[in-house]
Amino acid sequence: MKRYENLRLLAEKAQPSFLQYYKKNKKRLAKMDTEVQEIHDEVSDEIDCLLCANCCRTLGPALYDKDIERMAKALRIKPAEVVSSYLRIDEDGDYVFRSMPCSFLLPDNYCSIYESRPKACREYPHTDRKKFEQIFKLTVKNTETCPIAYEVLLRLVKK
Ligand code: SF4
Ligand code: SF4
Fold first, then answer.
1. Which of 21, 86, 110, 131 is the most exposed place for a label (fewest CB within 10 A)?
2. 90 C-alpha vs ligand 1 centroid, how far in Å?
3. What are phi and psi of 47, to 5 degrees?
């Protein structure tokens, strides 16, 4: 896997060109989900999340009731205990993990509740979702954390 230790710097350097691309291609992007999905698949095959885990170390995904219930089942505790032991409410009023790196991240970068992980963890970095154009700007921000987001945008703007 390509090394991404200096991802933040690389991303900051590339972000103006990503935003410029967005400005120029906003309308076209609305019809480019299939293309973006193909790039996502190609990049995901090349980048091993187990060698990265940046998202699990630094981002706090929002968690909803269904996430909490699923986690409670997996941990064999009550949903209220999930909240009191692992979560806090952030400035937007959403539940997020109390501490980062995430308490469920293991030393080998595996997730100890992988099958029951929150929806936001499953979907991050969202580069394979429909209506990608709507989250383009969020993806530009995510390039600072996620090599997949960075590579997807890099390849997209080169097309
Ligand atoms: S930051 Fe991106 S590449 Fe790294 S583990 Fe998370 S999803 Fe995978
Ligand atoms: S629950 Fe699992 S996938 Fe989600 S942040 Fe924690 S370690 Fe990562």
1. 131
2. 22
3. -105, 125
Q: What is the pLDDT of residue 5?
A: 79
* Cα 124 to middle of ligand 2, angstroms: 10
Q: Which domain holds residue 94?
A: 60-123
Q: Is 113 in the pocket of ligand 2 (CB under 6 A)?
A: yes
User: Do residue 48 and residue 80 come from a single domain?
Assistant: no
Quick one: 51 and 66 in the same domain?
A: no
In the block, residue with structure tokens 């967005």? 22
Number of domain units in the chain: 2
Q: Is 95 helix (H, G, I), strand (E, B) or coil?
A: strand
Q: CA–CA separation, 68 vs 3, rounded Å?
A: 34
Confidence of residue 4 (pLDDT cuts 50, 70, 90): confident
Local confidence band at 70 (pLDDT 50, 70, 90 cut-offs): very high
Ligand that lies nearest to the alpha carbon of residue 120, given by its number in the listed order? 2
In which element (H, E) is residue 96 found? strand 95-97
Q: How far is CA 147 from CA 2, 8, 52, 56, in A?
A: 9, 10, 8, 13
Q: What residues does ligand 1 touch, defined as CB less than 6 Å away?
A: 47, 49, 52-55, 124-125, 145-148
Q: Find out whether the beta carbon of 56 lies less than 6 Å from any atom of ligand 2.
A: yes
